[in-house]
Predict the 3D structure of the following.
Amino acid sequence: MATTLLLVLFGSVSLALSVPPIHTQPEQVHISYPGVEGSMVITWTTLSVTESIVEYGQWGRKMFQFTAKGNSTLFVDGGREKRKMYIHRVILTQLVPGTAYLYHCGSDSGWSDLFYFTALRETWTDGPRFALFGDMGNENPQSLARLQKETQAGIYDIILHIGDFAYDMHEDDGKIGDEFMRQVESIAAYVPYMTCPGNHEEAYNFSHYRNRFSMPGDTESLWYSWNVGPAHIISFSTEVYFYLGYGLELLFKQYSWLKNDLEEANRPENRAVRPWIITMAHRPMYCSNDDKDDCTKFESYVRLGRNDTTPVAPGLEDLFYRYGVDLELWAHEHTYERLWPVYGFKVFNGSTEEPYVNPKAPVHIITGSAGCREKHDGFIPKPREWSAFRSTDYGYTRMQVINSTHLYLEQVSDDQYGKVIDSIMLVKERHGPEAWN
Ligand SMILES: *[C@@H]1O[C@H](CO)[C@@H](O)[C@H](O)[C@H]1NC(C)=O
Ligand SMILES: *[C@@H]1O[C@H](CO)[C@@H](O)[C@H](O)[C@H]1NC(C)=O
Ligand SMILES: *[C@@H]1O[C@H](CO)[C@@H](O)[C@H](O)[C@H]1NC(C)=O
Ligand SMILES: *[C@@H]1O[C@H](CO)[C@@H](O)[C@H](O)[C@H]1NC(C)=O
Ligand SMILES: *[C@@H]1O[C@H](CO)[C@@H](O)[C@H](O)[C@H]1NC(C)=O
Ligand SMILES: [Fe+2]
């Protein structure tokens, strides 16, 4: 009895005296493209306060020839422990496009491992190569090892993570987010890791998402656009249609930003240089899954908007059609699905023989099968006529925007050890709304 009491007392005393470990070693390193040629943002985390420095140099030249300084923001998780972390950001500028750099980040209190990246070019001869996926978790991230190997082998220039990270970043007082960001360091520290928010980022008003990522623009990574090769890429939040409690005004702000951005991208001089307009966002307008999600309904909020709000909230299908968006990338459903060119639930093939040669409506791809603890989603037995190909294998998509007329897509099955299970060449001799005629 007395011993137990003593032990209990002793235990609580030592607990009260314990201090959190000093944590000045940089971790969770990831990079993103700020949308200005010759630049790159390096982002990382420490739990103790330190300086924010990146030392870097061209591959094969003097190591750490250049130094760039940035700053950190204190991010406090919304959970019970109110865990604190410092998110460091440094912008590198005046990089030579197409050139490889070696870098490490941190401060004199501790440096990260050594990483490398190639500065993005906005003009290419063979076109940028992407890996695309959504819905990857800390638990069961089945595609990650294959993506790590391929990224480090240099077959991708850019990764697009189309929402739903970690499952969920805020859980266990944010430690799930930390561990997930450590897991993806092996892809995200080497090529720009470009993101959009998904429903799993919702906690505390998307604060983990807004704090941990560093996307272009001034919306805390919620919506933004950027250019690479012959493509203009628009990332946005479908979540503004669902979490109205965080502000209906966000939905309208985003909508008018999208409209302006599309207007600008369609100015003849811009569309001539960047003919491909590609959107990425989490919840699709169409899908043939059996889980009663938004995309399973004819009246999808993302597609048609909402009329139970004041004012009524406009949907996005018409907007994207009017501005001649070529390709729409989605996730959320834990499956892969490719659609025939579609608008208003109707198929608009280029021709029956070659549906993706000069299609008369946007093409949609849903790629949310990277792997997470929620496993797979199911499909309805009989797909609608707009559904072209479906797979429940874990995997991810590769995309190459080859030139102004050709864009290649293929689906990799991780379950089948990297087998390509689907591919299309999207060919467009004309872009913009005129292409629909
Ligand atoms: C942190 O760095 C960013 C980007 O360089 C800069 O815009 C911002 O003003 C800096 N903030 C502080 C507090 O120095
Ligand atoms: C949620 O975050 C957004 C982006 O920072 C902000 O504009 C909005 O006001 C926030 N909503 C609430 C309810 O705090
Ligand atoms: C509002 O939208 C729903 C579908 O989401 C539709 O059934 C209903 O008729 C619409 N109501 C009005 C007043 O337009
Ligand atoms: C679109 O093209 C595909 C492939 O040829 C064909 O199977 C499908 O029936 C076509 N759909 C329509 C509505 O023409
Ligand atoms: C684009 O690439 C395709 C496939 O490599 C090629 O057939 C086509 O001629 C190229 N088009 C232009 C305009 O360079
Ligand atoms: Fe989701």
Summary: Residues 1-14 have pLDDT under 50 and may be disordered. Residues 129-436 form a domain with the Purple Acid Phosphatase; chain A, domain 2 fold (CATH 3.60.21.10). The two ends are 87 Å apart (CA to CA).
